[in-house]
């Protein structure tokens, strides 16, 4: 499982624990069916067709699934009025902010699309 992401705000310090990865994507699926039919008689032509298209994806962003704990300045204030530092808060076990993933972040998305067309040339009245 691993260590949660532990951050110390305000300093250029990357923190401890797991980074906000992995991010899983896929598998992606695309199903497409297209057909056109043409009929010609003399100067007259008729053409029609259609398309059916389905997209699907299963994926999830599992980054930060191990949770995160952040330590900022000033959780405790001493008798002299001086606020505690981030490192003091860390050793005291007093985070400013903490989060944990609950539930399943996996998403199953899909959509259907369809289209149709028809075209005539030469006129329908027999000209």
Q: Overview of this structure, please?
A:
The protein has about 130 residues and is mainly beta. It is built from one helix and seven strands; from the N terminus they run E-E-E-E-E-H-E-E. The strands form two sheets. Strands 2, 3, 4 and 7 form a four-stranded antiparallel β-sheet that branches. It has a three-stranded mixed β-sheet with strand order 1-5-6. It is rod-shaped. The N and C termini lie far apart (about 75 Å).
Task: Please give the structural blueprint.
Layout: E1 5-8, E2 23-24, E3 28-41, E4 44-61, E5 68-71, H1 86-92, E6 97-99, E7 107-121
Parallel strand pairs: 1-5
Antiparallel strand pairs: 2-4, 3-4, 4-7, 5-6
Quick recap of the structure?
This protein is 6% helix and 47% strand. It is built from one helix and seven strands; from the N terminus they run βββββαββ. The chain has one helix at 86-92; strands at 5-8, 23-24, 28-41, 44-61, 68-71, 97-99, 107-121.
Question: Which descriptors would you attach to this protein?
Answer:
about 130 residues; mainly beta; 4-stranded antiparallel sheet; 3-stranded mixed sheet
Task: Please give the count of helices.
Answer: 1
Regions with little confidence, pLDDT below 50 for 5+ residues: none
Looking at the structure, what is the overall shape?
rod-shaped
Helix proportion: under 10%
Quickly give the structural class: mainly beta
Give the terminus-to-terminus CA distance.
77 Å
Mean pLDDT: 81
Please provide the count of β strands. Answer: 7
Radius of gyration: 31 Å
Give the H and E element order: EEEEEHEE
Beta-strand residue fraction? over 45%
Biggest pleated sheet: 4 strands, antiparallel
């Amino acid at each position: 499982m691993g260590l949660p992401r532990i951050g110390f705000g305000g300093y250029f310090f990357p923190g401890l624990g797991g980074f906000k990865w992995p991010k899983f994507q896929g598998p992606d699926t695309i199903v497409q069916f297209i057909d056109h039919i043409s009929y010609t008689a003399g100067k007259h032509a008729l053409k029609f067709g259609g398309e059916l298209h389905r997209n699907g994806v299963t994926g999830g962003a599992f980054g930060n699934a191990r949770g995160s704990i952040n330590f900022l300045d000033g959780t405790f204030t001493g008798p002299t009025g001086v606020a505690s530092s981030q490192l003091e808060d860390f050793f005291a076990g007093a985070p400013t902010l903490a989060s944990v993933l609950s539930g399943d972040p996996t998403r199953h998305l899909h959509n259907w699309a369809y289209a149709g067309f028809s075209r005539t040339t030469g006129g329908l009245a027999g000209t």
